[in-house]
Amino acid sequence: MGANETTTLIKNVNIFNGTSDQLIAGQDVVLADNKIKELVASGGNEAPYDTVIDGSGGTLMPGLSDVHTHLALCKPPPQLLNIYSWDYIGAVMTNEAERYLMRGFTAVRDVGGPTLGLKKAIDEGLATGPRIFSSGMGLAQTAGHGDMRNPNAYSKYFVGEHFRLTDLGYFVLADGVDEVRKACREALASQVSQIKICTGGGVTSLTDPLYSVQYTPEEVAAAVDEATRYGTYVAAHVHTDEGINVALDNGVKTIEHGLLTKEDTIKKLVDKNAWIVPQSYIVSHEANDGNPTFADPIQKAKMDQARNGSANCFRWAKHYGAKVAWGTDMFGTRAAYDNTNLEFKTRAEYYSNVEQLKQVTSANGELLALSNLKHPYPGAKLGVVEAGAYADLLIVDGNPIEDILLMLDYENNFKLIMKDGVAYKNTL
Ligand SMILES: [Zn+2]
Q: Which residues of the chain have pLDDT under 70?
């Protein structure tokens, strides 16, 4: 041990390391500061440690990550535009960030919204929450998914009316190659981890049809070029198959949603070594019937279309061995965020318990690493339990490889929640 290291021993645990199909039984884990130092067979670790945690036969696993969330969309858009002040949003999302961590998520990728300040406050220890890979302001074309203006709004180009979602940092409406480049550079200047663009219609937005293909190949290629030259990548919101193809053909690395994909498009995604981040819970009747975020008949109709594609998307992705990440897209209300872990239940229709546990840990860690030179937490791995990785850890009471539903009752079943070597919950 180095002289100035803070050391922790977590003893008597069975380990799910994020990549193996089976637990590694009877282990002790030694931490030095915020990283894992070594894994050893239980017993005989009597060296002096600053802290000793007895895992009592629980399952030690990597902290969870949700690679598709929107912490700043803490009220239903587009109502968010008109009703809530920035300081109100800041107060609510700071609280939601802490609740995210307490559901076991030690990292999230925020795919659109003003979360860079929140990330900074969390990293400085002034607020509590997961690590945040923030996309900052998402890019959308005028009349696209991010254009949630009232249809009677005066033109931003020809009259100069402000779009409040741009003022607040949610979406920038950028049209044409030059504006797309400029918007990407603004995002990069604000220190985003990756660029988010919308290449097809969305469910929440009221005026753009789901089928619409948004952004031309030239505009998408320009965004990818800007991201690539800064050592990072582009994530694209898109449901419709044609929009997925435009994204893939022009270098987008992660397809967000992608629920209306065709079978051949999944094969293309595999060929291009790209990722798909589909959702199963948010499109379920359980999640969206009666949900105020999707209350408008236009939203309901679009949700029906997305739901109808979901099963094929998951099945083809599994069949062709696509890189599938675990992301929920839960947003809009406290109740929605609190249901984040229900994705485990609905996704179990397509994936075995251990497959899903790998997605929510090591696979997501691999996706987060695509941020490469814009990675906000470089220097160690996320999503695995191995020597040298960040000490982002959970201890689950029971074996989630045998029972994935243990992940739903996080309040009772998650005994330890640790991020960066700091225990935020310890009921052992
Ligand atoms: Zn989203």
A: 1-3
